[in-house]
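User: My collaborator sent over this chain with a note saying "see what the structure looks like." That's all I know about it. Can you take a look?
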Amino acid sequence: MAAPPGSGPPENARRPRRAPSTNGTHGYPAVPIEDYALIGDCHSAALVSREGSIDWLCWPRFDSPACFAALVGTPDNGRWRIAPVAPARIRRQYRPGTLILETIFETQDGSVALIDFMTATDGTSSVVRIVEGRSGKVDMHLDLVLRFDYGSAIPWVTRLQHGTGLRAIAGPDVVLLHSGVHLRGHHFTTVSEFTVAEGQRIPFTLTHGMSHRADPAMPDANVALDKVTATWSAWSSRCTTQGEWREVVQRSLLTLKALTYDPTGGIVAAPTTSLPEQLGGPRNWDYRFCWLRDATFTLLALMHAGYQDEAQAWGAWLRRSVAGTPSQVQTLYGLAGERWLMEWEVPWLAGYGGARPVRIGNAASAQLQLDVYGELMDAFYQEMQFGLARPSASWDIQRALISHLGEIWDQPDESIWEVRGGSRHFTFSKAMAWVAMDRVIRGAEQFNLPGKLDEWRALRQRIHDSVCREGYNEQKQSFVQYYGGDTLDASLLLLPMVGFLPPNDPRIKGTVAAIQRDLTIDGLVLRYRTHEGVDGLPAGEGVFLACSFWLADNLILQGRHREARALFMRLLGLCNDVGLLAEEYDPRTKRQLGNFPQAFSHLALINTALNLHNHGPAHRRRHA
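Assistant: Without extra context I'll predict from the sequence alone. Here is the result:
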């Protein structure tokens, strides 16, 4: 982005086919994933580095093309950095009970705070950055590179009429920057040098709009700060969780709220795409969608923490998204329930630390994953139990889903982990088919709803017998990943938590022991051993944080509270300095891995904290 000296055509009017790149594929050192923080407005979200650079932002929705894509490319693919010119000591924090980020830079000449947040008003979204002098005088530098369409499109830039900022347009998008400092163009970027003194505030507002409409109104930064503070504080104060982990639970709940698309109630798995599960490797996926596998975890976490409205909105999103022919139920959907999530690769982005490809969309949406039927039916059942929906509200949908599941439960599928190495008879998938049958039977019995109870009970028993016979390995004294195999899978830790068998059943205790023995690194749990080739990808990934929390849940259910607490505290120690978790963690390099922040990890954290207080979701769910 280049700011011209006047309001005429910018210096970059002759646009190249792609944004220029000066760093090469591997020349830009990747900021550690754990060095990012999240800001958001329940429509989209941005990642802010410790150095004050916004390296990822999609507008106007979580799943829209990015206008800042340096996270999976280079600075030439878009970023917005504000930081001192001189070296600085850096510390940061969220303001209590909010998603307002404060980054404190301390230099030899003074200290300055960078206050970052997002706000949505009247259908438009804004990033607000306030530079606040805390002591002395600090020389600052601003570097803004706007690149639409995932870092490929250089916008046409003009000055705003009153000289207080810039207007950038490319295709359907327009972005307005309001600034109190002088801006100038330099090599396809906008830069500024300015000084902030103690007690001085310099605001910057970046607002997105649609180019075919009138320019969006830009909020007053200070008014917006007060409003956003009040809104987040009021929301977080509704948290009913008490005890020693209230703050970490509240932070995870705030993260989940930030990942919620407010217009529909859908919750994205993460706000990012293609952050690698293996540094430098191809395990890079787009997580800016809503997964059915999260359904019951989400519902129970929200309800146990006091967020009934959000739980109702999530349940309504589930019903709308899966409505239709049962054979077309997907594993994941778009923010409003969209089904066409075609996966493609972005050739011009270098990838996070060179990890390619960068993927947009997710082909797992077309896979068969039997476990989602269990998740759906459990979520619908829990809704009825909590009184979130009338028992009859989704009953016709449930009966149709169960009828279809009865026809396909014995087919191979791609599992909860969305493997790409071919379908198999995965043990956990079959167990979740049992959950689906169990919950529909309980719903019919408890709420006097019509159904084929004798047929359903017979099928429930048949599935249970199948799992115990084909999915259990006597030699290993453990349930195994797929029928007839001898490999382990951490999803099997959920068997006692969904009520398939009691937690002290010898087969469950054997499974937990086997996973602790053969599927852990430094006490943290892998999903499965990737070198065995079941997922069709090169071997290697980190431990899966949600699975590690599930191990703690099993220890709780077995009465091993001291071990469970120790593991939980260990996992809390993996949160970054502002309380955020990615999907995975590498104990060897001590790096967070995968898309960030990850809803699945934070859901697991919330639920384990509640389970440790002996009133959590694991206790409720297994006694469904």
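A starting point for your reply to your collaborator: The CA atoms of residues 582 and 596 lie 4 Å apart.
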